[in-house]
Design a protein that fits this description.
It is a multi-pass membrane protein. By secondary structure, the chain is mainly alpha-helical. The chain contains 14 helices and no strands. It is globular and about 60 Å long.
Length: 288
């Protein structure tokens, strides 16, 4: 949808905007669903989630069309602007209209690995961070939940800012590599600080950069696959990346259990984030 509705110099903003749902959802949804469950019961909280999903389905059916030319609310100026941008994209995407051709492109596998390594870090950190703050840093569990919510709230600003800036400079890999470096830095500083307050601040900063690389990595995928095959390529890209992502919580759990502390598990996660950073340096040299 992003490839069909946005020219290449606006795709990162578009990706960042819709991907912010992953940040906005926990910020708004967690406390609301918790209150519904506490006041009425867990079944009623499921009914509330079902109602929200049904509302999303109705909105999608009513407002979304496959292309601008099929949309009732797109005026002529908008249609011409979008189609001009898409035409430019097609010239840049010559030879990327077949699944086999995309799968033979090494850049596709580099992007898949980058996204997989980032996902390992995201799920590994987000799964164990509340327990880490409570058990190691002595922060009450409820307070750690607010730390997570604050991190997701800041992530909205980080994602939108990176989306706008990467569209302006057309250097997506720079921002993904920068986020990887920040994840390593904030996690290291959080692990070795003795201050509970500083640990909370660093955790908020850490969560705020965890989600940002995902949207921009997906944007880079548009340079190796045309809209005609993006659905299939996106499916392959996502399934491999999230299969790798399952490693994250297992690594933290297993290594932490063997070493008797979270430190070993988080250090193991950093090795995957470091791989992402190194691969991004290679992508930068290719102009991504």
């Amino acid at each position: 949808m992003t490839a069909k509705w946005f020219p290449s110099n606006e795709q990162a903003k578009a990706q960042a905007l819709w991907f912010n749902g992953n940040s906005l959802g926990p910020v708004i949804g967690l406390p609301i669903i918790a209150m519904v469950a506490e006041s009425y019961g867990w079944r009623e909280s499921y009914y509330a989630l079902a109602a929200i999903s049904l509302f999303s389905l109705i909105m999608f059916w009513a407002m979304v069309r496959n292309s601008p030319s099929h949309h009732y609310a797109v005026n002529t100026t908008e249609k011409e602007y979008i189609e001009k941008g898409v035409a430019t994209n097609k010239k840049e995407l010559a030879g990327t209209g077949e699944v086999k051709a995309v799968l033979k492109n090494p850049v596709f596998w580099v992007l898949t690995t980058v996204y997989g390594c980032i996902s390992i870090g995201f799920f590994g950190i987000s799964t164990f961070l509340p327990s880490y703050l409570t058990e190691v840093k002595g922060i009450p569990f409820v307070q750690s939940a607010f730390v997570n919510a604050a991190g997701y709230g800041l992530a909205i600003l980080v994602q939108m800012g990176s989306g706008f800036l990467s569209d302006r400079y057309m250097k997506r890999a720079v921002f993904v590599g920068g986020a990887s470096a920040c994840i390593i830095l904030f996690l290291l500083m959080s692990m070795f600080t003795a201050s509970a307050l500083m640990a909370q601040i660093l955790s908020i900063l850490l969560i705020s950069v965890l989600l940002m690389p995902a949207a921009l990595t997906m944007t880079m995928l548009h340079k190796v696959a045309s809209p005609q095959v993006m659905g299939r390529i996106g499916g392959i890209f996502g399934s491999i990346s999230y299969a790798l992502a399952a490693i994250g919580p297992m690594v933290v759990g297993a290594v932490s259990q063997m070493t008797g502390s979270f430190t070993g598990g988080f250090l193991a996660l950093m090795s995957f984030i470091l791989i992402s950073l190194i691969l991004c340096l290679g992508l930068m040299r290719k102009g991504y």
